[in-house]
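Ex. 9. Protein: Glycosyltransferase family 1 protein.
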Amino acid sequence: MPRIVVVSPPFASHAVPLATLAESLCARGADVFFACTEEFAHLAQGDGVGFIPLTVTRNANTGVAEATRQPLDEAARLAEFLEVTRAGAVPTLLTQARHRRADMLADPEEVLRKLRALDKRLRPDWYVTDQLSFAVTLALHCMGATYATFCPGHPTYLPASPEAYFGVPYDWPRALRPDTAKADLLLAAARENDLAFTGMFRSFARRHAPTAPLPSRAFALASPHAVVHGYPDLPWLPRATGGPARLLAGHMVPPHAPPLDADWSLRVERLRRRADRIVLVAFGTFLSARDDVLRTVIEGVLEGLPGTGVIAAAGHRSHALGDLAGDRAVVAPTVPQQSLLNHVDAMVHHGGGNSFTECLRAGVPALVLPFSSDQFAVARDVERLGAGIVADPNAVQRAQVRAALDDLRGPVSDRALSASSQLRSRGPRWAAAQLLSVMAERSSVR
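Predicted structure tokens for Glycosyltransferase family 1 protein:
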């Protein structure tokens, strides 16, 4: 079995699924190391996976972005990002495009130095790296290392054609589709980023690996062998012709996700005494800061759905929303989302890839309120799949929340359950088996 180093950026929404994949590879006999910052060492404890302390980026998110210690410039960028989400989809994506120019290739020489030292010490047969850790991918490319790519977000984050650009949704949900002028502005910014970063990648490769092939496009640089997607294989997704094996795992929920602990079991039990339906509300590790939208959603449930309880993950804003907690509402900084999804009837989320796939796996219909990044593409998939409803987070009103949650019953719930039965046949174990098969095949060819 191969020796594999799984390299993760220090972001909870990326590190957790990558650690799950590492554990699944280890369970199938591979010699696996999980490389990330010390804050995530616990993800490699007790499952046979070794841990290597490794920092590959300047910013971090250990579970609640606002509560994570950041350098001053990174904290300022986070604050700007959160504020611009109030202005809508295109301004947010334009700001994110500008931020990428400042931090996407932060200190690539140091990343290359660290990976070369790690490679010399461990001599792994393969690496697995996060697709969004561009400096790591570029370093592995320059090293001539054999690696697989893990894509944590929407599959189109790896452009499938020359006309596709990173940061531009492949399609928009109906409620957030921009007009032509705004769409053209976003496309122009994405093209500019594509050209600029491809030039940076090529310049770096010429300096550090003059005999290596030059990257054709920075955002499309990925393993030539295998790309693992923690995402379902939806028939309408754009497809690249040829290239690496595309392994669409459906979801990255651990095979044996822990049950609710005693405290959370008691909270759910108390809610069930007051409500025959429970809605989980969570906007991920960054967007819990949008407490204005959280408040609208929670109040929409409490004021208009008397038979419904709510559990809300409010991050650093849990105190600001504490007045809403009561017999039918639990407001907490964080929640055990994967475990709770087995005990709730609907979810309101931001369109993050993990939330989308975890809902599908659990058969839970969702109201999706996308703010940024690939969330608009994910929301469009929810819409097309018919397993949820999409609304504009900056325009949603309490009455709309109530109506949407009512509409999640019946056919929408049935479609979510149908998707669940299909997703459960895959997951991290399936992805590990398929990836090890690709590794064995490529090794025999070499």
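Check your answer against this statement. The CA atoms of residues 9 and 301 lie 36 Å apart.
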